[in-house]
User: What shape does this take?
Amino acid sequence: MAKWLLRIFGVLLLLAAIFVVNAVWFKPFSSRVFYERVFLEYGLTSPELLTQLRLLESFGIRSHNAKLDDRSRQAGDLQFAKMKTDLATLRSYDRAAMSEAEQLNYDMLEWFIAHSSEGERWRYHGYPVNQLFGVQSNLPKFMVSSHPLADVTDAEHYISRLNQFQQVFLQVVEDLKIRAEKGVIPPRFVLEKVLAEIQGFTKGEVKQQLLYKHFADKVSTLADIDAATTEHLQTKVAEAVQQSVLPAYQHLSSYLQTLLTQSSTDDGVWKLPDGDAYYAYMLKQHTTTDLTPEQIHQLGLAEVARIQAQMTEILTAQGHSGDSVAAMMSTLGDDAQFLYPDTQDARLQILADYKTILADINTRLEPAFNIRPKAEMDVQRVPEFSEKTAPGAYYNAPAMDGSRPGVFYANLYDIRATPKFSMKTLAVHEGIPGHHFQIAIQQELQGLPTFRKILPFTVYSEGWALYTEKLMAELGLYKDDPYGDLGRLQDELFRAIRLVVDTGIHHKRWTREQAISYMTSNSGLAASDVEAEIERYIVMPGQACAYKIGMLKILELRQKAQNELGNKFKLTDFHDVVLKNGSMPIAILERVVEQYIASKKQAGV
Assistant: This one.
C-alpha cells in the first residue's frame, strides 16, 4: 500500500512539475494559466504596484516592499519586448474554441496589450514630470499612502526605498533628456510649477521633511518597537533623506532649470513630432473609440448647450437672472451661504461634512444595487505639499488584502472651490456609488483572471463615476435641493466643456488662455479650478474626453436594455452586468450588455 501511495505521489509530483515548467518557460496549456503568468510577470517588474495591491503579504512575501520600480530605458525596452511576445502568445490560442466568458477575458487583454504595444511609437511623447503627477510628487505620495509601517521590517524597507530615490531620479532625468533630444519639451508653465513644487517640498530641516515626519509619526505609535530601536530607525531615515532624497530632488531641479531655457508657451501636443497622430492615439487610449477630434469637439458644443438650458430653467425658477449661466453660477459661488470660512477648522468641517453626505447616500442605494463593495472608504485631505496643482479631488483604491481602505481625497487649497452646493456630487463621483463602488467591486471579483481585477480603462471608470451623478439625481438625492441639483449639472457641464477645450487645445491649437477663457465664460467655476483643469488637459491629452463619452454610452445602453426588455428590465440587474465584469473598452461593454439583454429575453423572466 505504501509503495502505491509513493508511486501516486511521485506521479502527482511529476505532473505538477510539468505544469509549472510549462507555465513558466513555455506557452501554458491553458489560457487562464497564461493570464496569471502575464499578471505575475508584470507585477514582479513593479514592486510599487505589488505594495499597493498587497497580494503577496498574506503568503509572507514582503521583499518587494524594499524596492522601487526600475524606470530606466533598459527596463522600458524589456517591457515593450515582453508585450509583443505576450500578444503573440495570446493570439496563438484558439479564440473560437473558447466559451463566451473566456472570449471576454481574451478580448479585454488583447485590446489592452495591442493598444499598449502601439504606444511604443509614442514612448517618448508626453510629459512624465508635470504639475499634476510624476516622480517628484507620486513617489512621496506612494511612500506616505501605500508603504506599510507596521513593524521593524516595514521600517527597514522604508529606509531601503528612501536610499533608492537618487537612482530613480537619475533614471527619470535620463528619460527627460531623451525626450528633449526628440523635441518633446513641456510648456514653460509646467516646468515653472514643478520647480516651485520641488522647492516647497524640499525646504526646511531634514526633520521637517514630509518623508521623515511621516515615518517618525508612524513608528512612534508602534508598541512592538522599543525606544532605542525607534531612535536608530529615525536616524537612518534622516540619513537617507539627507544623502538620497534631497540630492535626488536637487538633480531633477537643476535639469528642469536647464530645460526651462528651451521651453515655449505653445501648449497643445500638435507642436510635438507627429503631434496630430499622437493625439489621435491618446484619444483612442482614453475613450477606446475611433471618434475624431472634430466629432468630439462638436459633441461637446452640443452637450454644453443642452446642459446650460437645463440649468437656466432651475436658476430662473429660483429667482436668479443674469447674462449667462456662467455669470449666475459665479454669483452663487460667491454667496456666503454656500461658502465655508477660510480657516483650518472649516477645512476639517468639510471632511466631516463629506462623510455625513456619504452616509446619507448609502441609505438611498437599495433600489439600484444588489452588490456593494466590502472595502471601507475614508475621506482625507489632498497632501498639502501637492494641493496647489492637484485636481479638485481624486480616489485611491483600497489594498486587496483589506489592510487599507479606499480613500476619497478632497483638495482644500482654495476653500472657495468647495461651494456647499457641489459637495454631494463630488462625494458621489469620487466615493459612492462612483469610483469606490466601481474600483473596489472590480478588485473583489471572484472567479476571474487577476488582470480583470485591476485593468484600467478611463472611459469605463470615469464614465461610470459621471453616470452615477445622474443616477443619484434619479434616486432622489437632490429632491427639494435645487441648488444641489445645480451643482450636479454644473459638474456635468464641466465634463462637456472638457470635450471642447481638450480638442480645442490639442486639435484646434488653442492657447492655454483661450481654453481658460472658454471654460470660465461657460461654467462659472472658481478661477483656481479653471486654471488647474486647463493645465491638466495640456499635460494629459485626451483623458478628460473619456468622462462624458463613457457616461453617454452607459446611458445609451441602459435605455436600450429598458426599451428591449420592458417590464423585465431591472436597474439592479443592469448595474450588476456593468460592475461585475470590471473595467472594459466601450465595444466590449456594448457586447456584454447585448448578451445580458439576449439572456433575459431567452429566460422569459
Notes: The chain has three domains: 29-122, 135-265, 278-551. Residues 1-26 have pLDDT under 50 and may be disordered.
